[in-house]
Design goal:
single chain; 287 residues; alpha+beta; two-stranded antiparallel ribbon
């Protein structure tokens, strides 16, 4: 939801952007999207009405976050007042990204592309050097073991790995070399109607996917590979044994995922990617 608090509903300060970002993938032609799976290929050209709706959504999301900022400030001040700030960790993240016109998707999430799967993680607390970052890929399953380690508690058997060595800049060569160089993504069609006056729904039943986002130091290089299948019944009924569409993107040359290069890659590469993503599909626990 992005309904601003009443006292912020008209707030828009001078210097804030007047419209949502317009990256290269914003409002692509149907010809430009023809090599994407049907959920993307069938989207409309963004009309003036839809563009205005996107911009209003963008602004209201910012306004809504002003209330989140207030809560963060109040929580931090409470920790100061209680005298526990210096032994408290503050962790901010999200469960998904968002789309606002990229690949002609007017709003929402639920897609395999970078703007939906990439999220922020900000951490502050004892032993964390101010202003530092790390580039190793992390996912939400890493947050639980990270919290356990920060709390000095032995973690139970969970998916994911603690990010503390990277957050506190204590990772040795073995930890860094042994870290993952790819992340797995799996999604099942929910059925979201059209938004912002578009004729086509935000997603169609072809939008069930398994995918791996490989990093530059992986055996495949810096790419995204995805397989799509059609169905409406969700997990337990969709086995990804019949693949209806494939997508492959060179993230160095095509960071906005506008050109699907699957059909132009070698059969050897296709087979290797297919086998790898299905190994990820079968992974459980510590596999």
């Amino acid at each position: 939801p992005f309904t601003p608090a009443p006292w912020y509903k008209d707030t828009w300060e001078e210097g804030w952007p007047a419209q949502a970002p317009r990256p290269p993938s914003w409002n692509m032609t149907k010809e430009q999207r023809a090599d994407h799976h049907p959920t993307i290929a069938n989207q409309d050209i963004l009309s003036e009405e839809t563009a205005q709706c996107i911009d209003e959504t963008f602004q209201n999301r910012w306004r809504t976050l002003m209330s989140v900022d207030d809560v963060i400030a109040d929580t931090h001040q409470l920790c100061v007042d209680l005298g526990i700030e210096e032994r408290t960790y503050f962790i901010y993240s999200s469960d998904h990204g968002y789309q606002l016109g990229e690949l002609n998707l007017s709003m929402d999430k639920r897609n395999v592309y970078e703007f939906d799967i990439k999220i922020h993680l900000a951490v502050r607390g004892p032993g964390i050097p101010a202003g530092t970052t790390f580039s190793q890929p992390a996912t939400n399953v890493d947050i639980a073991p990270t919290i356990f380690e920060l709390a000095g508690v032995q973690a139970p058997q969970v998916d994911g790995r603690s990010l503390v060595p990277f957050i506190k800049k204590t990772a040795d060569e073995a930890t860094t070399a042994g870290w993952r160089n790819a992340t797995y993504h799996e999604y099942y069609y929910v059925g979201i109607d059209n938004k912002c006056g578009q004729d086509h729904p935000i997603e169609s039943p072809d939008n069930n996917f398994i995918a791996v986002r490989y990093q530059s130091n992986s055996k495949f290089g810096n790419i995204l590979y995805a397989e799509f299948t059609t169905g409406e019944k969700g997990p337990g009924f969709i086995a990804f044994d019949t693949i209806n569409f494939y997508e492959l993107y060179d993230m160095d040359k095509d960071p906005w995922q506008m050109t699907n290069i699957y059909n132009s890659t070698t059969q050897e590469m296709k087979d290797a990617l297919h086998n790898d993503v299905h190994q990820w599909l079968q992974c459980k626990g510590g596999d």
